[in-house]
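thread from #wetlab-drylab

HS: before we spend reagent money on co-crystallization trials with hypoxanthine, can we at least see a predicted complex? here's what I'd submit
DV: go for it
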Amino acid sequence: MLAIIGGSGMAMFDELVDRRRQVVRTPYGDPSCPLSFGRVDGHEIVFLARHGYGHTIAPHEINYRANLWALDEVGASDIVSVATVGSIRPDLAPGALLLPDQIIDYTHRRHGTFFEGPDQPVTHIDFTEPYDSSLRDRLVAAATSVGETLLVGGTYGCTQGPRLETAAEIVRLARDGCDIVGMTAMPEAALVRELGLPYATLAVVANHAAGIGDSAHHVSLADIAVVLEGAIGRVRKILRTLR
Ligand code: HPA
């Protein structure tokens, strides 16, 4: 069963037929919301709104462990996360859809592992490739079948938020090799790897990051909302056809 984690601008997956909700309790507390189950073209999907159905949970307040533990508990086989990001590359315009293949983590004080506490063994995971290339390929195939383009590859710099970055911070991220910047890739990706599930992120470029292009002097939150409204419809179309 495919799991979809919806980000900003995607608090529900209306395409689900026979939708039903289930509250899942976890050893780590409550997920962002009850899980939504339903079918798309006969395929069972589970959906979770990362920021809650009412978009009330900030990136640094999300209980990532509860969210992922819950999806694993109900039998998710693959996880596709939709994430809104800023573009650090001048040529990557708002509205672009991208499948990153790398992450740099700039977050702090988030619970980044299931393996902690007195009874847990010290556990290291391989995280060389944080995203699953087969799931990326399936997303590209789905996008192609509905006439959408997904750019493949790129490094996602994950900042702590909830504020956006300074221009100097974006210069530093660019120097580090980041192509896009967002606030939710971590620890989500690492926790999914601890669970051993395939994971891919469909990144929706909502704006040029601070100091870049039309965000040279400020980032317009009003413009972000407009871009997202258009782009999320295209994301839904792609996810509807993902097999
Ligand atoms: N920075 C961080 N997160 C974001 C941005 C940004 O510019 N745009 C959308 N999410």
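DV: Helices lie at 64-73, 133-145, 167-176, 188-195, 221-240.
HS: ok that's useful, forwarding to the group
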